């Protein structure tokens, strides 16, 4: 597992560094334009897992890296687990980076060419660092769920083919989801109560949501291992 993790990280570190810079710039533009450090952290947290899926899977087709990696003295299960671990590690790293940048930007807002409204907005939202971290974690959790759905198909069929398969599967699952929602009595009231509870318990809600997202991510990894074992390279 360690060998697979390091081999993938070492071969892609230059691309990862470039991607990190791009993500930070995009998040900065969004955060500054919205005058919101919360938006900055949430954007970076949400963007990283989803884009890392495409970055790593795109690298599989470069110079036959996927076939070469399969010849290394590591199991296919370790190859899949290392892919999931690298995406998760990059996501947590960028979440912390976004959080630090947001706090630093808020602290220096009065020294930057921002108007008084922007300075006040940055100071107000950054006054609670835990809320900033929760915003980023919520964003990361949402796209980790999306990555959990995409990765097994991407690893099994390749990114080009999975882009055609994933939307079809999503469309087929949509009626089932709508049907299940219709079976829940007083759904509107439950959503309203959940929203009120979320406002009062943001940190706890974030912890619960992230735990659920990570559980789904782990289950996705297990499914991807089973699917990848049957892939011809």
Topology:
Elements: H1 2-33, H2 37-60, H3 65-70, H4 76-107, H5 116-125, H6 129-157, H7 159-182, H8 187-200, H9 202-228
Helix/strand order: HHHHHHHHH
Gross morphology is globular
Helix content: over 70%
Distance between the termini: 20 Å
- What integer is the average pLDDT? 82
What's the gyration radius in Å? Answer: 20 Å
Task: State the domain count.
Answer: 1
* Main pleated sheet: none
* Beta-strand segment tally: 0
Strand content: under 5%
Q: Which stretches of 5+ consecutive residues score pLDDT under 50? A: none
**Assembly state here?**
single chain
Structural class: mainly alpha
Number of helices: 9
Structure, described:
It is built from nine helices and no strands. It has helices spanning 2-33, 37-60, 65-70, 76-107, 116-125, 129-157, 159-182, 187-200, 202-228. The model has no long low-confidence stretch (mean pLDDT 82). It starts with a helix and ends in a 5-residue tail after the last helix. It has one domain. α4 (76-107) packs antiparallel against α9 (202-228). The protein is mostly helical. The chain is globular and about 60 Å long. This is ABC-2 transporter permease. Keywords: Membrane, Transmembrane, Transmembrane helix. The chain crosses the membrane at residues 15-32, 38-63, 84-110, 130-151, 163-182, 202-228. Pfam families: ABC2_membrane_5.
């Amino acid at each position: 597992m360690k060998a697979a993790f390091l081999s993938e990280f070492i071969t892609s570190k230059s691309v990862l560094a470039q991607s990190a810079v791009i993500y930070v710039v995009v998040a900065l533009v969004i955060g500054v334009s919205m005058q919101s450090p919360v938006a900055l952290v949430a954007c970076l947290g949400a963007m990283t897992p989803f884009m890392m899926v495409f970055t790593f899977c795109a690298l599989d087709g470069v110079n036959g890296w996927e076939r070469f990696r399969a010849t290394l003295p590591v199991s296919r299960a370790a190859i899949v687990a290392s892919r999931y671990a690298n995406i998760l590690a990059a996501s947590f790293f960028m979440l912390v980076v976004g959080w630090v940048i947001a706090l630093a930007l808020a602290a220096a807002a009065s020294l930057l060419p921002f108007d008084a409204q922007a300075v006040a907005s940055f100071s107000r939202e950054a006054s609670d660092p835990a809320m900033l971290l929760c915003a980023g974690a919520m964003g990361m959790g949402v796209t980790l769920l999306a990555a959990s759905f995409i990765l097994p198909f991407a690893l099994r069929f390749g990114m080009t083919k999975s882009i055609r398969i994933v939307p079809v599967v999503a469309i087929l699952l949509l009626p089932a989801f709508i049907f299940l929602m219709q079976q829940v009595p007083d759904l509107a009231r439950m959503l309203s109560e959940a929203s009120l509870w979320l406002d009062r318990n943001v940190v706890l809600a974030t912890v619960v949501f992230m735990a659920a997202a990570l559980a789904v991510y782990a289950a996705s990894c297990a499914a991807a291992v089973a699917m990848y074992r049957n892939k011809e390279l």
